[in-house]
Write a structure and sequence with these properties.
The structure is a homodimer of 111-residue chains.
Chain A (H helix, E strand, L loop, with lengths): L2 H10 L3 H10 L3 E2 H10 L6 H13 L3 E6 L7 E6 L1 H26 L3
Antiparallel strand pairs in A: 1-3, 2-3
Helix pairs in contact in A: 2-5, 3-4
The first copy, chain A, binds a DNA duplex (30 and 30 nucleotides) through helix 1 and helix 4.
Chain lengths: 111, 111
DNA sequence: GACGTTATCGTGTATTGCAAGGTATGGCAA
DNA sequence: TTGCCATACCTTGCAATACACGATAACGTC
């Protein structure tokens, strides 16, 4: 893995998790659709990041999942936000904003 | 490690590295001083994150280091930015900004 | 010389992103 | 019905790295 990729990889750590919560908070979504959307935004590199992540979120009780038929193709597993998930999302916002601002300040350097 | 801490830990990944470059870009600094400043901003948890990081930056040729006497106490190892370091810092800004904006957009939900 | 302070650094563990590959289902065309 | 492709989910293994914990070293003070 070259340097540039590693930088992005590390930056994404811990961020995607909450972007997923935010997205399904707006309405349920299934795995591959989530993966594609996040890939388009540069937030994940592939599905192999997403599936283990969804499993962790489920284990943590932040999302529920449910199989649903599809008009075309295989059944899909749809995820929805639990109350704990909504709470975690709120908590994340309070964490993200100060961190983001600390980075911006440091990069901009008012010394 | 509890959940809350893990969230912060993951968020910090890949961010501190460039905050360090930004700080020493303003003038050389030594390890412990860097660590204290970054701890105050919530960007690292302890020196044990910083020293291995500085070693990596040095290996990558992004910083140089030099021992200097101190008025009081042990000698300190001062770090300075190399040209490659300055370049990496510029490159990071181009990576950070879109990512930060993608996160903000996703959290704020214009869907 | 014992002790506290300042400073740098090493070891071990846990987390996790991702590449690569595996499995299952449905649609479609020859 | 056979073959093939797209869709969809998931697993394995590796590599990167944050951090707790602790070691080591130099200096000053009593």
């Amino acid at each position: 893995m070259d340097t540039e990729e590693r930088v992005l990889t590390n930056l994404r750590k811990g961020i995607v998790e909450f972007c997923v919560l935010a997205i399904i908070g707006e309405g349920s979504a299934y795995g591959l659709a989530l993966a594609r959307r996040l890939e388009a935004d540069g937030l994940v590199a592939s599905e192999s990041t997403l599936y283990p992540l969804m499993a962790r979120l489920r284990m943590a009780g932040l999302v529920d999942s449910e199989w649903q038929e599809s008009d075309a193709g295989r059944p899909r597993k749809y995820y929805t936000l639990t109350d704990a998930g909504r709470e975690a999302l709120r908590a994340f916002q309070s964490t993200w904003e100060p961190l983001r601002d600390a980075v911006d300040r440091t990069l901009r350097r008012p010394s």
